[in-house]
Amino acid sequence: MSATEAYLQKGWLRFAAEESIRDWAARAQRCAETATADPAHAKWLDCEGTWFIGVDALPNDPDGRLPSGPPLAGAALDFIRAHFGEIPALHRGQLSVIYPGYPRPRRGESDAAFGYRCKRDGAHVDGIKIYGTARRRRVEEPHAWVLGLPLNKTSKDAAPLVVWEGSHLIMREAFRQAFEGIALEDWAHVDITDIYTAARREVFETCKRVEVHANPGEAYLMHRLCLHGVAPWADGASATDGAGRMIAYFRPEMPNWQAHWLSDL
Questions:
Q1: 217 near 17, Cβ under 8 Å?
Q2: Structural domain 3-255, CATH architecture
Q3: According to DSSP H, which parts of the chain are helical?
Q4: Tens digits of per-residue pLDDT, 68-93?
Q5: How many CB atoms lie within 10 A of CB 221?
Q6: Rounded to whole angstroms, how far apart are CA atoms 57 and 174?
Q7: pTM (2 decimals)?
């Protein structure tokens, strides 16, 4: 099976370690250590100190270049160019750091929501947001793809990414039904709560749950519609230097998303 076929079928790909990515990850780890220690970023430390949700916490430029480093480059970026076109200007990398003891309740989280994170790894599709007092859902951040870059070595059970293979196919069909007959310019206002919840249930019943572990130098690319989450930090799990499990994510938003968000690639 080719890499393209695997991506289309499973919804994610892992790329072998490369020196360029390893060097980038080493620089990013140093930046991550600075970011997590910065009092200005205290708002991003949640779940009773077990999850640093660092949205735009890394100081990279639009080419992914960190201070004194080269642009972000490697096989994963080459795959993206081949299938999605040129890499857009990258946002500042999102930094996800999980510490021993995760999961713990988030600030303001209901018992039901916390239970879902514990039992279902907080499974979600990126860009689907809750709005209003009734806590309904709609598409607010339509991403083009999701690239994950591990920054430090960890044991396999140190809160790895979890993906449900093939879930993007189920979610795509659900969203197609939700938007059927709706003018493209109105998609952002469509309440998808019920059909999204039903599709997640189908995914849990029919798709394989896979824990994705990778080390610095490796990379993984996930389809924008793939249901994914974070596994608990297991007893005895470890990360280098006693730090948390650090991963940098890039999730550029898709322009003119209604025309391409539900396409195969």
A1: yes
A2: Sandwich (2.60)
A3: 3-10, 19-37, 75-84, 111-120, 167-179, 193-206
A4: 899 999 999 999 999 999 999 999 99
A5: 23
A6: 33
A7: 0.96
